[in-house]
Amino acid sequence: MNTITFEACCGSAADAIAAWKGGADRVELNSDLFHGGLTPTLGALLTVKKHAPGLPVMCMVRPREGGFCYTETEFETMLEDARLFVEHGADGIVFGFLHEDATLDVERCKKMLEVIGDRESVFHRAIDVVPDLMGTMESLISLGVTRILTSGQKPTVPEGAQTIREMIRIANGRIQVQPGGGITPENAAWCRETIGMQMMHAALHRVRYDRSTLANPSIYFGGAVYPPEDRYAESDAGDLADYIRRANA
After folding, report:
1. Averaged pLDDT, groups of 10, the chain, 249 residues long
2. Range of the domain at 131
């Protein structure tokens, strides 16, 4: 059995460094995983490159939550962020552009691919909301995209397993199909066997505590959602190493 390629979904430089220590093959570097992953800071990329030598880092370029049809200003910002990441050592860029009707925005994809150049290009789970899944995959193949991240247009990979299996069959090596979304240590081996996947994308976090806000617990720093302000999520190297072992069991 071939060892599966494990990509850790990371919300910070600390997550990525823990993933490297835990044996991840590469990472997707984000900020704000609560909103599905947004563009990380350049400082986060530089810190990962400093402390996790040799670890391939895919940088998410997504300026906001809520859809994938961006304004001209947002699109310009995305190109500039991607350019900075590539110039400072990113091994790949993760992106997704759709029109308002959820069809693929080919022209914007082309412009992003020009910025990415010879680095890896990853079309993220925006593909899970397009009306023509296989047609969109063919378009991404024609554009020369390296990889697709997908849950098979279902909430989780186990639910979309048969669709992902069919995507891999139709792709036939012309593009990498990477399952991601709802893969847990408990179902990872089942997903591998059922889908026949060679790579996976997953996040695993523990709760960490920062007690510096407890002197005034009535204060919140977000909007209408009021999570506890004395804790945050962070990856643990030991947890990730166990996850990878179980995925390959």
Report:
1. 85 96 96 94 98 97 96 98 98 98 98 98 97 98 98 96 97 97 92 94 83 78 73 85 84
2. 5-204+236-247
